[in-house]
Amino acid sequence: MCGICGLTYFDPGQTVDGQQVRDMCAVIRHRGPDEEGIITRGNFGFGMRRLSIIDLATGRQPISNEDGSIWIVFNGEIYNHLELRKDLESKGHQFKTKCDTEAIVHAYEEYGDRCAEKLNGMFGIAILDLNDRSLFLARDRLGIKPLYYYCDSEKFLFGSELKSILEIDGVPREVDLQALDNFLTVEYVPAPRSIFKNIFKLPPGHTLTLRDGKVKMREYWDIRFDEQPATEGELCEQLVELLQDAVRVRLMSDVPLGAFLSGGIDSSSIVALMSREMDRPVETFSIGFQESSYNESSFARIVANRFATQHHEFTIEPDALDLTENLIGHLDEPFGDFSIFPTFLVSKMAREFVTVVLSGDGGDELLAGYDTYIANRVARSYAKIPAWIRNGGVGPLLDLIPPTEKKKGLVNRAKRFHEGAQLPADLRHTRWMIFLQAAEKAKLFAPEKHAALADFDSYGFLRAHFNRAGTADDLNRQLYVDMKTYMVDDILVKVDRMSMATSLEARVPFLDHRFVEFTARMAGSHKLQGRTTKHILKKAMGSVLPHEILGRGKEGFSIPIKNWLKNELKPLMMDVLATDRIKREGFFEPAYVEQLKSEHLGGKENHSHRLWALMVFGIWQDIYLRPQTKTSRPVETAATIAA
To answer: Which label site among 55, 256, 267, 474 has the fewest CB atoms less than 10 Å from its CB?
Structure first.
């Protein structure tokens, strides 16, 4: 696991200074604390920070082919690299290391820009081909690993994290107002946008080639739904077999590894399958909360006891949130998912014992684990109630009932359902994943900002994916949208940034592309039956997992931030969202922000999502938009390959 970055000038006579690349590497040192590697070749420069996982002795990057005409820096893991190596050796390629990185170099030699199709893994790849002086980038199929890029008339930049790109002089820091609108709507910035104009994310399953100053992008993989008839028993057997193998190949490591364990069915399934493969107890890690309705620790303990794991548990307290500025800095872009805190803290705890963890992320999007899918079905019946009753009776009645301090609860669920039901029906389940609607944005944005967004469809990226899904199965269409949006730009961003902030590698067996393709061949009725989410996974693991795990509902990895904003986080909120500051920054209407604060603190409404998003954006501005001072950071181990 590493962090990668690079710089290319279009003018062949303009030489890349190695210090420029070192600066780009310095800000992502957390992604690879073990060593640094740099290569400069005239107008090209690559860099990487390495977290040593495989081939600790000879796996140093950058790595080249036999004659030094092709060089690579790579972030991720390739789980089929041994099989790929055998194939390439049979074709005459010669290897000098045992690491997975070198297999990619020779695969590129053999297959060109189709090499990514040969890889099973998570990756962000950059290859310099000196034969035609081209640059090749690739991102894994599901977007597990990040890759940003920037291009202007003089240069092309890339990096595992956006902050590397910002290290190069001349990159403008101008907020993309449409990206900000997306962030306030869904709490993340959907690809290919970033929060900055002209800096983009390479979409999952895509490659990018830079040749002669021209950028060419190609999609090499997508989720294809081809529902095939099969009995439930056959599906259960195939599911366990494929998931078992996905777990097995992800145990490849020359360093200690373990697993995140929340006590939900996804992480519990991963731990169960790991215990079959390992000759020692699995190291498991979970996080708990003082507030009882948020605390799932007891379920994690049940699983840990069943599979005799070496279990580690940590209880988060509100004072842990002094991490706020640090974590937002690691995210590069405004990001509103509250669960960054427990994800960071459980990663930090795990890193004390292991270097690699397996997680259960992806199961909800593949197998319909969210309550929003159920809500969409309920909404069809709710829509049959006359509008005058829904809007003139139900809505006002719910407005009279204050939100509770519980994580969910009947009142909170009813309020959230009614709020989402006001949104367009063509958004289906994503209506309950939207946190700021058009009427509220009209009050929130400053008039000139709101006017600039007049023709922008905040939900356009969701609608585009619905239209592209390529299946008549309504549930599978919804799953496709989640895999292309919420999963890649929220869940996977959170896991990557928070784990790498602690120099911990997180692997996701559910997102093995073979398993994803298997679930895409499955009708939606196998995934959601009635109001039972992840039906097929529960059936498949029915004889393996404790009944307490199989019978529990989806809770989510969240924190009681709505309560903390009234207490421990109140001073921070009042400072970041102070009226004079809001007025000075010019994005929002101070009076409406004051209204949100007043209603939340008074217990009239739960505005935690809106307030937290505004706080995140304010803190992010302090980190990324204020005058910056670059500092060179020393590195412990450095390898520089100069021209």
So the answer is: 256
Question: What is each CA distance from 362 to 105, 242, 368, 619, in whole angstroms?
Answer: 29, 15, 10, 29
CATH of domain 2-221: 3.60.20.10
Give the domain ranges of the chain.
Answer: 2-221, 232-368+476-550
At 341, is the secondary structure helix, strand, or coil? helix
> For the sheet containing 63-64, what is the strand order?
63-64, 70-78, 121-129, 134-139, 206-211, 214-219
pLDDT of residue 555: 59
C-alpha span between 301 and 324 (Å, rounded) = 29
Q: Is 5 a catalytic residue?
A: no
Query: What is the gyration radius of the CA atoms in the chain, in angstroms?
Result: 24
User: Cβ(37)–Cβ(48) under 8 Å?
Assistant: yes
User: Helix or strand or coil: residue 399?
Assistant: helix
Contact 126, 136 (CB under 8 A): yes
Bond before 192 cis per omega within 30 degrees? yes
d(CA 518, CA 411): 38
Average pLDDT over residues 131-158: 97
- Residues 2, 25, 151, 236: which is the catalytic one? 2
Three-class DSSP category at 187: coil
Question: Is residue 555 left, alpha or beta, with left meaning phi > 0 and alpha meaning psi from -120 to 50?
Answer: alpha
Looking at residue 641, what is its pLDDT? 42
Q: 638 — phi, psi (to 5°)?
A: -135, 140
Candidate CATH numbers 3.60.70.12, 1.10.245.10, 3.40.30.10, 3.40.50.620; the one for domain 232-368+476-550 = 3.40.50.620
3-state secondary structure at position 216: strand
556 pLDDT band, cuts 50/70/90, is low
388, with CB counted inside 10 A (0-12, 13-18, 19+), is exposed
